[in-house]
Amino acid sequence: MKIRDLTYFSKLASLKNFTAVADYFSVRQPTITMAVKRLEREFDTTLVLRDQSHQSILITPSGHQLLKHAHRIIDEVELTNLDMAALNQEQVRFGLPPIIGHYFFPKAASRLAQAGLLSQLAVTETGSGELLTALEDGKLDIALLGSTHSLNNSLLNATLLAKHHFKIIVSPKSHLASQQKIAFQDLHDEKFIMQTEDFVHPTAFGALNKFSFINPNIIYKTGDITLLKNLVHENVGIGFLTETALTPQDELVSLALTDSFQPEFLISLVFRQSQLPSATQKKVIDILIQALRTDSYHQ
Amino acid sequence: MKIRDLTYFSKLASLKNFTAVADYFSVRQPTITMAVKRLEREFDTTLVLRDQSHQSILITPSGHQLLKHAHRIIDEVELTNLDMAALNQEQVRFGLPPIIGHYFFPKAASRLAQAGLLSQLAVTETGSGELLTALEDGKLDIALLGSTHSLNNSLLNATLLAKHHFKIIVSPKSHLASQQKIAFQDLHDEKFIMQTEDFVHPTAFGALNKFSFINPNIIYKTGDITLLKNLVHENVGIGFLTETALTPQDELVSLALTDSFQPEFLISLVFRQSQLPSATQKKVIDILIQALRTDSYHQ
DNA sequence: TGTTCTTATAAATTTATTTTATCACAGCTG
DNA sequence: CAGCTGTGATAAAATAAATTTATAAGAACA
């Protein structure tokens, strides 16, 4: 099996025309015919039906099976090229979601600056979900990500840096302001200012709703945490926010949840299992872990 | 990049000797030298240091990076070969853990037999964890698996068939036998008969311990559910068991847990994302889903 | 019916890989 | 220290494989 044959075949499946595939790769048409024949001979099967009224080709079930693997192999080959190229690079492509970037990452910034590494970071700032995809696609080297579940899997290496709690935040003027803690189900009649879907907050909020059998009113959604805090401060509604983002300057009251089941805001340092960190990357990773890891999660 | 060069290089990394690799693949030694050179030229880097006191070779950091990808690519190629070969086969390699096999799968067996498919199943019966690995390694086509968390990921396609509850089972002679339900933390002084680690029960039990801040005494572990039931029946201890495995014939009392957080026993039909089911496999999958899926989980 | 668009085939060509033969180097050993 | 052994590199020759060129064959379509 040749990688090149797989790319020819994969393109054939999408273009459905031998000549077009040949043009695409700047080769002659019989090259594509031969490539498909090689694969068909190797696996002793028919991958493509060509006679079918001659309008277009048809991929057989065996063909579809091979395509599934072909895509995985081609993707891995692309990642290989990206990673091998990135190896000689000094720049570290770094993903940072807004909350973690504003309230958590700064604790490590001075140590990175000391080591002369802050300037090497090419930072992408967007939601954790998007960063996760970029990481998996080889577009980022390292990211700090927020999540409710562990991100460790066969693709990604995730080091847990901190587990933060989600809090209920209310205005000092709110009727809840005198309390220190509250059960989530007691909030069923409250109006919430919620984060947009690129935050993990709506997911955690949904899980709490499910477990408490309530469904409070969300009156406004925003991706701007400062705006959210201001709206809560003005008592327009109450908020649901990880303690990560809370500072004394907010002039907000935060209530702990008393529920035994609680989603947590996990902050992890994530990189691909398949990417061996470069020297620079290794330094960044070490400093971030040292500076940001909460003691209780040292292993 | 050629797959063959990657396999040569990968073997070189483990054997650490060009000549030995050549012998392994029944080619001459310069072939290996050339293969490594091709890769080094393609990625414009040094992958292997050969002069180092001439005792053994040394893989450079770039070499290690390439190795990581090489292994992933080689694994995928192996899976491809397995899947393409399995495509023409009538036999379906089917994984079935003991509890699901005894208490849950029989509901589908008659319909499989009707369709003449029961005899096509090559059944492997072992713990869910082992079956999961076998599935990922391409040694199984389909499995029914028990788990506490969803098994869906980038490798596996999992269809949820049922969510069962974990119950506390006690002897009719037990002092708990008059109750219908109980909070887990009230069991802190009880003695438990527990399943061995190849079951999901110890994991779920551990999660409940953690949430309830208790740590009950486990006096015996067994992989034999009938023995476990007998021991509980004789009031040697109490048990923690998915309702899947409970039948009226057991003469046991089962108590529901009242906790708001409860792990669940998920039963899923699982196969690899990358394996396109053969005609026979498709039939088996359809019948299993139709016969076993609990109504509330139709999508 | 001839034109066009398609893929297949076969021979020639080009490119790539492997082998053969040999060299160079280092570590051991008598 | 000379000679043996085991290691990998190199260059030319041989082999193998992929691609191109040129052409055929089939179907759709005007």
Automatic annotation (TrEMBL), chains A, B:
Annotated transmembrane regions: none
One family name in Pfam for this protein: HTH_1
SUPFAM superfamilies membership: Periplasmic binding protein-like II, Winged helix' DNA-binding domain
Residue ranges of every copy of the HTH lysR-type domain listed in the record: 1-58
UniProt-recorded Gene Ontology molecular function terms: DNA binding; DNA-binding transcription factor activity
The keyword Transferase is annotated on this UniProt entry: no
Presence of the UniProt keyword Nucleus in the record: no
Superkingdom in the source lineage: Bacteria
Keywords carried by this UniProt record: DNA-binding, Transcription, Transcription regulation
InterPro entries in the record: HTH-type_LysR_regulators (IPR050950), LysR_HTH_N (IPR000847), LysR_subst-bd (IPR005119), WH-like_DNA-bd_sf (IPR036388), WH_DNA-bd_sf (IPR036390)
GO CC field: cytosol
Family per record: Belongs to the LysR transcriptional regulatory family.
Annotated PANTHER family: HTH-TYPE TRANSCRIPTIONAL REGULATOR YBHD (PTHR30419)
Protein name: MleR protein
Organism: Liquorilactobacillus sucicola DSM 21376 = JCM 15457
